[in-house]
Amino acid sequence: MQKKIILNSPRLLELKKHKRKIFLSKFCFVLIGLIIIFVGLGFLSRINRLNITNININGNKIVEVEEIKEKVDQNLLGYYLWLFPKTNIFFYPKSKIIQSLSTEIKRLKDINLTINDSGTLEVLVKERTGLYTWCGVIFEPVSDKSSMCYFLDEDGFMFDEAPYFSGEVYFKFYGETVDSYFAKNNFTKLVLFKEILQQMGLKPVMLYKMGNSDVKILLSATKFSTTNPEIIFKTDADLDIMAENLDAALDTEPLKTDFPKKYSSLLYIDLRYGNKVVYKFK
Question: Which of 3, 111, 116, 195 sees the fewest Cβ atoms within 10 Å?
């Protein structure tokens, strides 16, 4: 009982209150100091020489400078925590700007941001090159200006609407796309087989990837035919073996003679049956 009285004596209670007041005073002092430093840094971060004063765009050939600059400006608006400007050379949202440009302007492939000594944000871009066109999920050969196609780059990435081209200016792809990619896992293989056909003296002009693993490559039609001859194969087939089988068939009778003579009436050459090459004329 005596011990409890000592612990709760008026003197000890007064000492505890005094220590609490000292602690709170120090805490408030430190907090106010931190707020002053924080606000001071906020105003310091607004000094002109610490902020982006200009934006310079380089590397673009098709995308307009103003279109790129507008996207960059949008990401530099505002402040962090209502104090620190997003234009500050140490805090500007570099990753967000790159992501915004690549997402909203799909023609841009590579984007690099640096800040020079004068406070200018240098935006260096590399544009995608349209090597092929994608013209829809369902195979409908483009025959008029109302049909819409999109450019594909060397990776099969679809990035921009293509103007109307008459004739066979660009090789056309048809079939499903995923995340703006056509046949992402097999695109290089499909293009390589197209090039092999060209080396054989054939003229592939379109490719249709069907819902299963079957693929049709359509050859150029003649003025005497109304349809395009087809080369049919599977995407999971061995490319080298498939090319060897086709080359051997084209160099073996009767196809060796019939192919050049009856080309306008050729319906298809089917490579889906292993070493067996199946073909049909009208």
Answer: 3
Q: Is 65 helix (H, G, I), strand (E, B) or coil?
A: helix
CA distances from 247 to 202, 243, 244, 256 (A): 11, 6, 5, 10
d(CA 58, CA 124) in angstroms, rounded, equals 5
Report the pLDDT value the prediction gives residue 1, as an integer from 0 to 100.
46
CATH superfamily of 132-281: Cell division protein FtsQ/DivIB (3.40.50.11690)
Tokens of 133: 């066109």
What is the per-residue pLDDT across 223-276, written as a single tens digit (0 to 9) for each?
A: 877 789 999 999 999 999 999 999 999 999 999 999 999 999 999 999 999 899
Mean pLDDT of the region 78-103: 95
Q: 163-173: per-residue pLDDT in tens?
A: 887 667 899 99
Residue type at position 168: E
Cα distance between residue 277 and residue 261, in whole Å = 19
* Burial class of residue 217, CB neighbours in 10 A (0-12, 13-18, 19+): buried
Residue 18 identity: H
Q: What does the alpha-carbon distance between residue 91 and residue 183 come to, in Å, rounded to a whole number?
A: 39
Residues of the chain within CATH 3.10.20.310 domain(s) are: 50-127
Span(s) in the chain for CATH 3.40.50.11690: 132-281
CATH topology of domain 50-127: Ubiquitin-like (UB roll) (3.10.20)
